[in-house]
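Anyone able to model this chain together with iron/sulfur cluster?
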Amino acid sequence: MDSGENQVATRVALFTREQIDRLPERAREVVEYRKSGLSLNHIQGCPLDCAYCIRHTYGLWDQRVPRALMTDAQAVEELVDHRYFQPHVTPVQVFNRATDPFLPVVRPHTFAVLEHLDERELTNHVLVITRHQMKPHDIDRLNRLRHIKVTLLFTYSGIDNKDIEPYPSSVAAESLKLMSSPELRRYRTVLYWRPLVPGLNDSPQHLDQAHELAAYADATVFTGLFYRNEIAEYYKANGLPEPYEDTARRKIVPETLEARVLAVFGSATPLFRKTSCAVAYAHGLPDYNGHYGIPELCDICPLSQLEICRSAHRAPSPDQLREVARSLPEARGLVVVDINDHAAVVSGLETEQPRYYLQHALGFQVHDVRHPHRERRHGRADIGWKDGKPSG
Ligand code: SF4
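re: yes, here you go
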């Protein structure tokens, strides 16, 4: 045990077998591939009550007390034995779906997971996203990790409507400043500026505050709101101001808002549209999602980073792609439709998860023919964009 706090910290209780059986199916999924990495979520539940929480989308909104589905050691085993996990390659995210990794009862588990991974001498990226308060001794504990590439992403929105975000953004801002303060540290920090919502947190003052905060971080990424059906229903039922009339599969950042963000940031502060780009830049490595293949994403990227990504950018051959897919049962129906300098276009994948596996294994964009890439939308929803121009 490393610190006084962790010797006395209360840990999360385990769910009973009956409780686990009653959980929605997706909540029982401990390892899940999400866009920025393979996500480990053996603790579920959060009391911070952000109205737009992803827990709405899989029937777990009422789980406010964090509980564990298994021990940390078992969860790490499950992660590294998972067919999607590639040592030193697969980016990992810890507790990014159903809880906050630095809630007082969750933080011992977060450190345990990081230390288990590090003891295995794995060098994978590990992303830890939090809005919670961090403590000075967290710096020392994170600095003791020798192998994994840790990035702390601080969720900050500047939203001051307490019905939407009861836990104040100022806490995340202070945590970012604290954790970024040592000149020498082994982990990296990212200002995760989200969700940006028109009319809620996009005033000139909001944008200026985020810009000031960005100076502390190694990199900043900005993104919009996942306004899915379940979240829209919650907004309606609770009389919350609805940001959009429609819902969408992807995150929403209208083009006019993006233009205003870029104008405030200028070129002196490293700003990215994609989480993986911010993480990669912070570590001086090429983007592991191969976004370099989508040149319009890179027009705000520092020149030194463009060079790093350019040098790493290699289109795979169809045979290489099929070879990488061979180990996945759910990719047996894979058909390579096209490979060009931007992306490999495939069909026959049942879900999004194997697509992420292929993308990370190759460091190259893999697109599903059913979800074509739209130029200049940057993988975001259509709302707010029309023929390359804002629709509202
Ligand atoms: S060059 Fe492009 S792909 Fe690479 S980090 Fe920058 S924005 Fe991302």
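Confidence is low (pLDDT under 50) at residues 1-9, 385-392.
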